[in-house]
User: Which sequence fits this backbone?
């Protein structure tokens, strides 16, 4: 007999996937924030009045080990500013809402499919038994 997944199975699979994938994304968080921070430094250097006045841009004194942490901090600040922009914030909310609706529909469809398949198998076995 074929066993179709039910909505509970899907929820359990999502939880397992989140536990498996979550730590992998956590490993990428630092480098991604640092690269966003490096981009922020590059843009702020390009628009610096010092650069356009012919003076070299001001450099803050940071130890080499602190550069990465500083870039991550700038990247985190930039990410927060990006998320706070109205269009980005509304887009993120819309994506979250669509994800929730999709998940509900998927679970409902799986439950309906399971109910229909059980009903069909019940009728089939009753007809087979009656013959």
Assistant:
């Amino acid at each position: 007999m074929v066993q179709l997944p039910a909505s509970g199975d899907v929820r359990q699979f999502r939880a397992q996937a989140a536990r498996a994938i979550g730590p992998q994304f956590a490993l990428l968080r630092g480098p991604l924030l640092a690269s966003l921070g490096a981009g922020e430094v590059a843009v702020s250097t390009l628009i610096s009045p010092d650069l356009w006045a012919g003076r070299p841009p001001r450099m803050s004194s940071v130890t080499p080990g602190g550069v990465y942490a500083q870039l991550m901090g700038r990247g985190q600040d930039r990410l927060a500013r990006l998320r706070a922009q109205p269009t980005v914030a509304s887009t993120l909310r819309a994506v979250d809402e669509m994800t929730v609706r999709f998940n509900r529909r998927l679970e409902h469809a799986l439950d309906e499919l399971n109910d229909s398949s059980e009903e069909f198998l019940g009728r089939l076995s009753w007809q087979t038994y009656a013959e």
